[in-house]
């Protein structure tokens, strides 16, 4: 089985490298072999002689595409952070990856030019706008916006954690690469929303040094179940950033059934009295009034921040 290329394209300072490095951390957690190919680093090592004309950019893209195709050929995950402003460049990369039997995931890392200028710690936009730098993408050199990217990230609206979750989930649930085969402690629930009572139970296993798998039931959205599967998966990931927790979705279930001597333990945990009374209904009511003082005492901090962003609360 060949590997996968996750190709992050976008304007300078749109967030490509930040997301690429965060993705690499996520793959490392899953013991998935991967490489990050950053455009600036590759230029400094392999294509120093190339400039920034359209012809040189395309030639640089060909070099990166070739390297990526060889990683994919050997079942690795290649995470590419490259402006790649022309459709021709991205199509060439896709053709080489797919020729090796691999999967190419085009990720458009989108941010308004004004946002990119604010983030530009190197001051390159300022130099380009003053004419000191020529052929700068987004100023005097065009960026051909992907017409139909596999993933469209708006980094001025979503956090790095949310962007990583989106890309990882797309690749994972589309069967793009194998997940770690190490045994995990399984927890199944609706998590509408996830709160400190849930977190307490899950941390019993994490504190034992056991990796965890959290399964989110795909329940219909209604008054008692207001969050989509994706929203619940994202909020759980926000609660366990950097921890060995994998989140998946499963169809809704009628029951959980086991036989005798099944080869794994079945555990029941009781939560302490001070968090025993927390209920998802209580949190949903607090959300209606945007009472984040109450909410912050009921859910993990990562989920508080996730819910604030969802409710547009600064």
Biggest sheet strand order reads: 2-3-1-4-5
Distance between the termini: 45 Å
Strand content: 5-15%
* Count of beta strands: 8
What count of domains describes the coordinates? Answer: 2
Q: Given the structure, what is the number of helices? A: 13
* Secondary structure: helix percent: 40-55%
**SSE ordering:** EHEHHEHEHHEHEHEHEHHHH
Could you say what the CATH topology of the largest domain is called?
Rossmann fold
Name the CATH superfamily assignment of the largest domain.
Answer: P-loop containing nucleotide triphosphate hydrolases
General form: globular
CATH architecture of the largest domain: 3-Layer(aba) Sandwich
Gyration radius (Cα, Å) is 22 Å
How would a crystallographer describe the biggest sheet?
5 strands, parallel
CATH class of the largest domain, please?
A: Alpha Beta
Q: Which secondary-structure class do the elements indicate?
A: alpha/beta
Q: Taking all residues together, what is the mean pLDDT? A: 88
In the predicted model, the low-confidence regions spanning at least 5 consecutive residues are: none
